Amino acid sequence: MSEAPAAQRTASADRAGSIDLLLRQPEPRAGWRVLPARVIALCAVELQKLRHDRTELYTRAVQPALWLLIFGQTFTHIRAIPTGGIPYIDYLAPGIIAQSAMFIAIFYGIQIIWERDAGVLNKLLVTPTPRSALITGKAFAAGLKSVVQALVVIVIAAALGVALTWNPLRLLGVLVVVILGSAFFSCLSMTIAGIVLSRDRLMGFGQAITMPLFFASNALYPVSVMPGWLQAVSKVNPLSYEVDALRGLLLGTPSHLGPDFAVLAGAAVLGVAAASALLGRLAR
Amino acid sequence: MSGDTETAAPAVDCTGLAYAFGETNAVDGLDLTVAEGEVFGLLGPNGAGKTTAIRCITTLLPVPPGMVRVFGRDTARERMAVRRLLGYVPQQLSADASLTGRENVTLFARVFDVPRRERAERVAQALAAVGLADAADRMAGTFSGGMIRRLELAQALVSAPRLLILDEPTIGLDPIARTGVWEHIDAVRAATGMTVLVTTHYMDEADQHCDRVALMHRGRVHALGTPGDLTRGLGERRRAAGATGAPPTLEDVFREVAGSGLDDTSGDFRDVRSTRRTANRVG
Ligand SMILES: Nc1ncnc2c1ncn2[C@@H]1O[C@H](COP(=O)(O)OP(=O)(O)O)[C@@H](O)[C@H]1O
Ligand SMILES: [Mg+2]
């Protein structure tokens, strides 16, 4: 190790350097500004990580591309699923966007347990950051990452000939829907993390809930072709509302944008509350 | 930040601090006062309860009101106010490997409300203070163990804490990196005058760098004083009993106050595992 001489040299050199700012405590922000400031701080970290390592962005694009390419094109030919007159691949694209966003968000529970084990979470919990602000920040970071992923899937879909809207207002709506949906699913996964407390158990849970959530939604087929019990599950599944809104916004098909936004926003708020309440268990 | 009660209050004041994990009384009636401006060492073998005590003081573990005060503020009642006074470096190497050194420190500047106009400069000063100015834009994942510890020190310093809490800052480091870390702790303390509460199970480090130490064993403090007073006291007792030989070390003092329990409580599996994990990440 060549650290000792280097450390000595810099230590003595730095003592001459100015540290005036390190003697003054920063002024606390006004109460209502803490939450947005923490959300921005955690989103900035997410963007920095994405900039340093884009491989995840690419590897995560493979699965949605395969769904659209194979499943989408095959079922477009078979015409087995009633889509209300549009090609099946068009019908499928919003479902796949929602799916890939959900897969990203579900990972946040595993990440928060990893951060607990590594001491990163503890350190953040000893800053003037209320637990709900920490969770909200993580939820929005998940949303941000999902939005980046959604843009990739939108480009893939457009390249495969899906007739998507390019209306900026509608695309803005898509951003909001994806952020709200990912906020909910990341909080769901962080809530489960707060219950099971270990990464191995959470991995099991993650796998046990993501595929059922996906299949018990309108991502692949309309609710009308489902058996009654599955329709009931789909009705309480936020993913269905996310897909419905995305279809309405991206394809202009009939949808229920008002209720969709209300359900997604409500689910996100509930998710933040539940995950924040359980965060203390992870810190113990 | 003024008022007579607050300036007079000690940096840390624990009275009868107790915390149990199920059946394990990790901290069991700890009385401790850390004066403003001193470097205070909390010493003890693995499993003594040092980390648990630290986690109570840092508001990570919930304790009833009246047990712990930081600069006069109750950790149960004034959580946020207490956190603003603290810089905390946990036992694990906890820098984010997928961010650069500078980004790691900037995150903590942000969450302590450092305004944007002075953020970059403050971060640069914190990195320079620990000798990482040149490595600041490398990924933290490429840092050596000693560099990560110094980076964590910068993360803690960027908010100008009045109390710096370091949990085993040199665990798992090689002797040379240990010296490097302590050099920066000493330099920062000399330059800022901040209070430092540090835990360690290396008695020689405490002897060299701490103004006062508390010897902790099975959740309680068994001896308290300056390292010099403690070793001198034992030397005198030994001479009075007619013994001769080398002057006693802090470790000898510990053996005396802890009795025979010291060797067989060198940590259960949990401690061994977390120590190993830290050692592994250090590489
Ligand atoms: N999260 C935890 N759950 C259960 N037991 C714990 C936990 N943390 C610490 N302990 C137990 O509490 C005791 C004190 O641990 P700790 O405070 O980590 O000691 P030290 O830091 O002095 O090595 C040990 O017996 C340890 O096994
Ligand atoms: Mg410990």
From TrEMBL, chain A:
It is a multi-pass membrane protein. It is found in: Cell membrane; Membrane. The chain crosses the membrane at residues 57-76, 96-114, 147-166, 172-197, 209-230, 261-280. GO terms for biological process: response to antibiotic. Keywords: Antibiotic resistance, Cell membrane, Membrane, Transmembrane, Transmembrane helix, Transport. One of its GO terms (molecular function) is ABC-type transporter activity. The keyword RNA-binding does not apply. GO terms for cellular component: ATP-binding cassette (ABC) transporter complex. Pfam families: ABC2_membrane. Its main location: membrane. Residues 55-282 form the ABC transmembrane type-2 domain. PANTHER family: NODULATION PROTEIN J (PTHR43229). Belongs to the ABC-2 integral membrane protein family. This is Transport permease protein. It comes from Streptomyces tagetis.
Automatic annotation (TrEMBL), chain B:
InterPro entries: AAA+_ATPase, ABC_transporter-like_ATP-bd, ABC_transporter-like_CS, P-loop_NTPase. Residues 226-283 are annotated as: Disordered. It holds the Pfam family ABC_tran. Residues 12-243 form the ABC transporter domain. It comes from the Bacteria. Gene3D superfamilies: P-loop containing nucleotide triphosphate hydrolases (3.40.50.300). GO terms for molecular function: ATP binding; ATP hydrolysis activity. Keywords: ATP-binding, Nucleotide-binding. Residues 241-251 have a biased composition (Low complexity). PROSITE patterns: ABC_TRANSPORTER_1, ABC_TRANSPORTER_2. This is ATP-binding cassette domain-containing protein. It comes from Streptomyces tagetis.
